[in-house]
Amino acid sequence: MELKATSLGKRLAQHPYDRVRLLNAGLEVSGERHHYVIPFNQLVRIQCKRGMVWGELEFELPGQKVVRLHGTDWQETQRFHHHLNEVWQQWSEEMSVISASVLQAQSAALAQAEQADGWMSQPALSALQAEIADTFAALPMPLARMTEFDACRAAAAHCRAWLEEGEARQAARNRRWAKQMQEAHPAWLATSATGPLDERQVQAVVNGERAVQVAGMAGSGKTAVLVARAGWLVQRGEAAAGQILLIASGQSTADELNGRLKIEQGKQAPEALTVPALALQILQQGGRKALVLSKLEQDEKARRALLLKLWRQQCEEKKPQANGWRLWLEEELGWALPTGAFWKNRALGERLAGRLDRWLGLMRAHGGSQAAIIAEAPEAPSFAKQVKLMAPLVKGWRSALKEEGAVDADGAIRQALDRLNKGRFNPPWRHILLDEWQDLPPLHAQLLRALCTGDDGPSLFVTVNASLSHETHTQALPAAMAVCTLARSYRADAIGELADRLLAGHVAARRKLGLRNGPSPDLLLLPDDQLAALLDKLSGFAQEKERVLLLACDAHQRPALLQKAKTRWPKLSLAFSTIQASAGQEAEYVIVLEAMADEGAVAALEQALAPAEEAGAESQRLLYLALTRARTRAWLLSPPEAPSPWAAALRAQGVPQRRTP
Question: Does domain 493-652 have CATH number 3.30.428.10?
Answer without folding.
Answer: no
